[in-house]
Specification:
This protein is mainly beta. It is built from 1 helix and 18 strands. The protein folds into 2 domains: 1-119, Lipocalin, CATH 2.40.128; 124-194. The protein starts with a helix and ends with a strand.
């Protein structure tokens, strides 16, 4: 019933509701091309200033204001400045942020850049390691940013149960196999080109 009343009030005010899956904690409303964030009680946390937002993750919400991304806390306060061209949700205490369209790094919940922006793409950390792409090739780093493998893979998956699947392709073959958390690999030919 409470949600119905909130929707009715917003309909009267001329807002277009866009219920977004925020695990029941938050939702956002769209008005004149901007979003405002509300809690599940219907209380407005922010003004309609934001052009996009993600779902809350580890207490913070990646949000875009104009063309830049930053982070809001659960009360709607801007806690990490809007200075990134892209930003991910926090996972395991870190978020992936792009300082320009080509380079990304990782920040902590204080907004401190803990792994410098020198990678093209990244996945979130899994089991203490992260797949990152540098110069068009994939490799793995630890939480300090130190590479545990060379950047030589064409395709990778995240670590699961201490190993990550990897693939390398050359002119004649596709090799597939695994890398462990010490950076040791086991590859075999998966496909022969004729």
């Amino acid at each position: 019933m409470r949600y119905f009343v909130v929707v009715l009030v917003f309909a009267i005010l001329g807002c277009t509701p866009q219920k977004t899956n925020y695990s029941g904690e938050y939702f956002r409303w769209h008005k004149n091309g901007k979003y405002a964030l509300y809690n599940n009680k219907g209380e407005r946390l922010t003004e309609a200033l934001y052009s996009s937002s993600s779902y809350p993750s580890e207490g913070l919400i990646a949000t875009r204001k104009g063309y830049l991304w930053g982070y809001l806390d659960k009360a709607g306060n801007e806690v990490i400045p809007f200075r990134y061209t892209r930003a991910s949700n926090f996972e395991n205490g870190l978020a992936i942020v792009y300082v320009n369209r080509e380079k990304m790094g990782f920040i902590d919940k204080n907004g401190t850049m803990v792994i410098p922006p020198k990678f093209e793409f990244a996945r979130h950390f899994s089991e203490g390691f992260c797949a990152v792409q540098k110069d068009g090739r994939w490799g793995f780093i630890d939480r300090s940013g130190k590479a545990i493998t060379p950047f030589k893979y064409d395709r990778v998956e995240s670590f699961k149960n201490g190993i990550a699947k990897v693939w390398i392709q050359d002119d004649k073959n596709i090799y597939s196999g695994y890398v462990d958390t010490k950076g040791r690999e086991s590859l075999k030919i998966a496909h022969l080109f004729k």
